[in-house]
Amino acid sequence: MKINRRTRVIGAFAALATALVTVSACGSGDDSASSSAAKDNPYHLIEPGTIRVASMGDAKPYTFTDANGEFSGFDVELFKNVAHRIGVDDVVFTGQDFSAILPAVANGQFDAGVAAIGITDERKQTVDFSDGYLAGYLTVLTSDSGIKKEDDLAGKRLGVVQGTLQEKYATEHFPDAQLVRFPDNNSGVSALNSGSIDAHFLDYEAAKQYGKQFDGLKLAINIPSFDAPAGFAIKKGNDAFREALNKALHEAMEDGTWKELYQKWFPGSPMPDQYLPSAEQTN
């Protein structure tokens, strides 16, 4: 059968129209799938509906594992409260050495790092942070009665946990001390009790716990550290997650949840004014 030119042209247009409809349908499906995925996982979590957190198991009262092996502490309870406010109740904490937390968050092994992590310009090169939620003191813990002021640390063996603000501070301000680095506070305090080091430099609240646990240890020097408040660490560029955490964090401060947790975990300690409900702030 002979097909004339007009028939061929009509057939070509029909084929083209069919192809366009097909491409359009495929594109619509992809967009729909992408939109659905974004809706199901708005915070770009490793596993939708679950927040995987890198933390520490020996930093009481901030983060620690209790007798049942469960994570507890001020930071743990605060983060779970904040996570609930953004619609996530499945929060999985995993213990790490402090120095490993930020790299693990940065490379996507965890959604967040939660361990009273001080916000510094250096650390912000590796990860993003929520707004600050905690400020406090740095403390020299020792049984040496001759250590009463910073100058007394000259020539002494001073323990620090690697990667912490204490290590950075000691490097800059205690140049004559012999720094001995540990993966965690338990190791440092064990070395202190055995006489391997003369003092251990750590956070005030953690030092207070060890002082209660071991009679011979005293909080010899307390140094204010309000220039690097603690924040939740997250992978760089995850703005949706960071903004959601910030909104929920400030809600927890404004409705008194933060204050309640602080009084629970840090009884008798000075309370940073800037984290109280606005009606209670003095400034």
Descriptive notes:
39% of the residues lie in helices and 24% in strands. Strands 1, 5, 6, 7, 8, 9, 10, 11 and 12 form a nine-stranded mixed beta sheet that branches. Strands 2-3-4 form a three-stranded antiparallel beta sheet, with helices on one face. Mean pLDDT is 88; it is low at 1-28. With 283 residues, the chain is an alpha/beta fold. The longest helix has 36 residues, at 5-40. It starts with a helix and ends in an 18-residue tail after the last helix.
Brief write-up:
This protein has 283 residues and is an alpha/beta fold. It has eight helices and twelve strands. Helix 2 packs across helix 7.
Fill in the keyword field for this structure.
283 residues; alpha/beta; nine-stranded mixed sheet
Average residue-wise pLDDT: 88
State the end-to-end CA separation. 94 Å
Element-level helix/strand string: HEEEEHEHEEEEHEHEHEHH
Tally the helices: 8
User: Judging from the principal axes of the Cα atoms, what is the shape?
Assistant: globular
Helix percent reads 25-40%
Largest sheet: 9 strands, mixed
Helix and strand content put the structural class at alpha/beta
| Rg on CA atoms, Å | 27 Å
Q: What is the percentage of strand-forming residues?
A: 15-25%
As residue ranges, the low-confidence spans are 1-28
For the secondary structure, the number of strands is 12
